[in-house]
Amino acid sequence: MAETFDPWSPGFLADPYPAYAELRARGRVHWFEPTRQWLVPHHVDVSALLRDRRLGRTYLHRFTHEEFGRTAPPPAHEPFHVLNDHGMLDMEPPDHPRIRRLVSKAFTPRTVDRLRPYVHGLAGELVGRLVADGGGDLLSTVAEPLPVAVIAEMLGIPESDRAQLRPWSADICGMYELNPPEETAAKAVTASVEFSAYLRELIAARRKEPGDDLISGLIAAYDEGERLSEQEMISTCVLLLNAGHEATVNATVNGWYALFRHPGQLAALRADRSMLSTAVEELMRYDTPLQLFERWVLDDIEIDGTNVPRGSEVALLFGSANRDPDVFDRPDTLDLSRQDNPHISFSAGIHYCIGAPLARIELAASLGALLDRAPTLRLAEEPERKPNFVIRGLQELIVEL
Asked: In the predicted model, is pLDDT for residue 1 greater than 60?
């Protein structure tokens, strides 16, 4: 098994999809000793387990660490876990629906739609700079600043403070990789402390002088007398920033790298801009920015005759599910006109990505702006993959006109 699925090897990180195909051929669930997780590679199972309430993102709403057969995190990691555990992504009912309902009051489709002109304007501006320079790093000039600026604009974070958001986010997200080393944990703790302190001050300022921004909306949001606590607000803001740009950044560069390797598809998209919406969905499917999502087994489950007992952790392989031939016709083929595309890149069930509509707007805006303003865009040098598995992306993507 380790020979097939090796999430720390450069070869696997460069192209995990052949290994996924082998996993799917071998069966529907596999024990992986290095991370002590059950790997789930098939779309039908990943989709079902995302919706199965016998699994959860946490177990602490029902069990202590000891009751669940787990060891509590080291006390030195507490700032990270306080921040992480009060975000709705790592909550289960009854806290999760309460938080999501309150956040939804400030994160409405109307709010998102109101951002559309800003997103398209900023995308055009960023692409214009890239074109004026004759090319450069698509990641640092377009893919990264667009979603960071958009979520910062939503939250009401001043432009002068935005440069520190991405480094904080990167350090925190390092903890979502498999078996992160202590050095990664230390960076995540520092970032958690600094980011939390910054947001605590910003929330205090918005309490005194509310604005037309998401933080002010979160302060004002209430439902049947319930409000978000300050820690829940801080954790929500961090979650919205991290989840609101990490996937979009990586979907953008993964997508363009895929387009450069499939010139026929890129030419077809350049010739027919009506394919833009299906292209966004297909690029999200073809090289999934979030490859794995974990769940705790709260009550015994069975997958194709294999008992997975309470206390286990399952690793739902999004990247594999999105290439499953039982669901997708010619799954290893990039087809920007693909109509039947039930990819699960935005998850499913109660933890379905609340920011999915905004991510789609951002991806379509940057893709459209690059097609319009840089019609001869091409790859200047072969990129390197980031040494990460769970959050899949590139170190940089150097392009020229």
From this structure: no
Retrieve residue 267's tokens.
């030419």
Half-sphere exposure of 380 (CA within 13 A, CB side): 12
pLDDT digits (tens, 9 = 90+) for 64-113: 999 999 999 999 999 999 999 999 989 999 899 999 988 887 778 888 88
In the structure encoding, which two tokens stand for residue 149, read together?
């600026």
| Tokens coding 213 | 């921004």
Q: Are 123 and 366 in contact (CB under 8 A)?
A: yes
Residue 274 has pLDDT above 90, yes or no: yes
- Tokens (6 digits) for 168: 């904080």
Could you give the angle at which helices 356-373 and 276-286 cross, rounded to 10 degrees?
110
Q: How far apart are CA 54 and CA 75, in angstroms?
A: 29
Handedness of CA 85, 89, 93, 96 (dihedral sign): positive
| Domain 10-400, classified CATH 1.10.630.10, yes or no | yes
The pLDDT of residue 3 is 54
CA gyration radius, the chain: 21
Backbone φ, ψ for residue 37 (5° rounding): -130, 155
Pairing of strands 398-400, 313-317: unpaired
Cα of first residue to Cα of last residue in the chain, in angstroms, is 44
Question: Domain coordinates of the chain in residue numbers?
Answer: 10-400
- The continuous run of DSSP H or E covering 316 comes out as strand 313-317
Measured distance CA(61)–CA(84) in Å, rounded: 15
Q: Are 156 and 176 in contact (CB under 8 A)?
A: no
- How confident is the model over 127-142, as a mean pLDDT? 97
What Å distances lie between residue 72 and 174, 201, 299, CA to CA? Answer: 19, 30, 20
pLDDT at 248 over 50: yes
CA distance 341 to 256: 19
**Is the pTM above the cut of 0.70?**
yes
**Distance (Å, rounded) from C-alpha 363 to C-alpha 150?**
12
Residue 5 CB-density burial (10 A; 0-12 exposed, 13-18 middle, 19+ buried): buried
Q: Which H helix or E strand runs over 234?
A: helix 230-261
- Within 8 A by CB and 6+ apart from 155, the residues are 213, 214, 215, 237, 240, 241
The label of the residue with tokens 């602490």 reads: 60
User: Alpha-carbon distance 121 to 147, whole Å?
Assistant: 13
Instruction: Output the pLDDT for position 224.
Output: 67
